Amino acid sequence: MTTWRGNPWAILMALCLGFFMTLLDLTIVNIAIPSMIDHLRASLDEILWVINAYALALAVLLITAGRLGDLYGRRRMFVIGVVVFTVASVLCGVSQGPELLIAARVLQGVGAAILMPQTMAIIIGVFPPERRGLAMGVWSAVAGVATLAGPTLGGFLVTAFDWRWIFFVNVPIGVIVLFLAMTAIPPTRITRRHRLDVPGVLISTAALFCLAFALTEGERFHWNRIIVALAVAGLVLLAIFLDQQRRAQGAEPLIPFALFHDRNYTLMNGVSVAISIAMIGTFLPLTLYLQSVLGMSALKAGLTLAPMSLTSMVAGPVAGRLADRVGGKYLLMSGLVMYAVGVGLIAIVARPHSDWPVFVIPLVAAGLGVGFTFAPLGTLATLSVPPEVAGAASGVLNTNRQLGSVIGGAVIGALLQNRLAAALAGEAERRAGLLPPQAREPFLDGFRQAARGGLEVGAGQTGVHPPGGLPAEAARRVAELAHEVFTQAFVTAMRPTLAVAVVVILCGAALSSAARRTVRNGVPAGR
User: Fold this and answer.
1) By percentage, how much of the chain surpasses pLDDT 90?
2) Contact 417, 225 (CB under 8 A)
3) pLDDT higher than threshold 70 for residue 446
4) Which three-class secondary structure state does DSSP give residue 285?
5) Per the domain annotation, does 197 fall within a domain?
6) Is residue 193 part of a domain?
7) Which of 8, 172, 212, 333 is the most exposed place for a label (fewest CB within 10 A)?
């Protein structure tokens, strides 16, 4: 056990498994939405809160949790986070109603927020800069696989067992992580008493909650006065927080501003936001397309996306090793461009009647891009971060990534809804002339109502029903045309949303071009 404790690779295994759980639960729930609605007799709004409650708790608490690790011990905070997350997963799985499930998801998000920033911070402390690239490559490969494998694993669990198993699957993983953490990770030595920046915690929590809530719920509530007021309040509180932090720099602030004196760290925060927006911009429309348009089961949709996660898993450690040898800047730029190419190819090959083989090459290209993105990004971001503020650095980086996901969800969701409404109207107009005269106006009106319903769509659902009194053959024709309108309209609407993802990721590539280059053994170089 002596050789096991402090072993860098044993420590990395514990950190990666813990990180895997938290990221898996950001995506695994999406594919179980129909099953949860049926079994819990819940509304779509309630089930969307099952997703958003976790994301909100995570986004709001990451900065505070990262700093707590710096001040009171990273292993201690990591273990607490694992315990809270695992217990909350059990509570999610046994919930008998949407309200209890939402509450358990909040607790799960708290656990994830506590443990997540400790993973990168411990890696910074354990691995020196010249070996950090490979460690970051493994860590980022796990992150990529967790994010992308959610639909695949979730589809299997929902199909083979029940929606509750998407939460129960965390329990054995949590037990293993807890054992590894207690036996492999040495406790952090606290050499002096620390004081938490309580005003900073309170102000930042309120600011992040207002911003994240407004962005998450804005489209659903049509950006009413309350949502706008929350967004404005969040921005005002953020400004107050930054001023409070400026005045607290001489003590122990929540965010040490010295972190942003490093150009690479500052730039990588921006690149992280771009990547998160782009990934949401890819997977939100794509998962809806696979199930709602192509009629795939949850399992088949997950398996269709599997080439991306498998390729990313293989590419991540390779990219990390290369980052140690040749530097991360150009690897990162190449990965971002490759990801943009993969997403662009998906937009080109997607049709109303496409089959899974046409997506293999685009998804492999995107997977290579993801694999060659996260490891160099982590290496560049953390190269010059002092170990004593590694938790704060990780908390800020992960918070920006999570806020990028929230922004991406709001922007992409709104764009997809807007384009879908326009495409439904246009496609319905083009096909209405093929129907009997008495069916045309109800057909068009049905799609106007469906467009106003937003993204509440599922396989085979168009929101349009044949009017009564039609002969059977005419009613069948109405149903066929309604399906054609929906599938073609969704594909038409999906393309501009994927184009936005491509543009955002290319902006990230342009931003990364300004990073300082690193050479062998992690030594910073010039441009």
Assistant:
1) 20
2) no
3) no
4) helix
5) no
6) no
7) 172
